[in-house]
Amino acid sequence: MSRLSTIPTRESVFAGGHDLYRGDANAVCPPNLRECVLAMEDCCEEAHEAQQLLRNGTFDLPRMNKVLESQKVFLLIDEGTVRKYKADLANEIEPQINELIERAESGLKAFRRKEGLIQSKVSVSRHTVQSRAATAPTANKREERRVQMLLKQRQRLEEEVRVLESEILALVRSATNHSLQF
Description:
about 180 residues, mainly alpha
């Protein structure tokens, strides 16, 4: 029997029991009214128990918040799981790193070819300027500007080659360190 059924009830509105209503002598109480009342009491009891359970679960919340703010919580896992995730990560990243290294190497080769071409152009223009300077003290100003522009371009390309070489070395080091860790 439910907890609420033991509570004393108020006086009934039905004069001769629950079958007749005082105001209407012909009215008859539905036969399953008692079952509805018992079902309602059970629902109220379940709601009360749920409320109590919720109160018991949350009454300590402010203290727990304070404890969790001031302490670190660590999750311990076994070394096999760590190795598995490291291997998965290595398998996922390694192809991308290898592709980046290949692209950097091909870019470096292209820049070295450009550098070689520019160096040959510079040496040819130097030789031409020297031969012209020997023949004519007042050389063509356009040619001098062109040589200066080529020299500046050479310096710029040499700087780019240095930067690319340092990037490649950094990628190779990280790939080597990455593969040594696994």
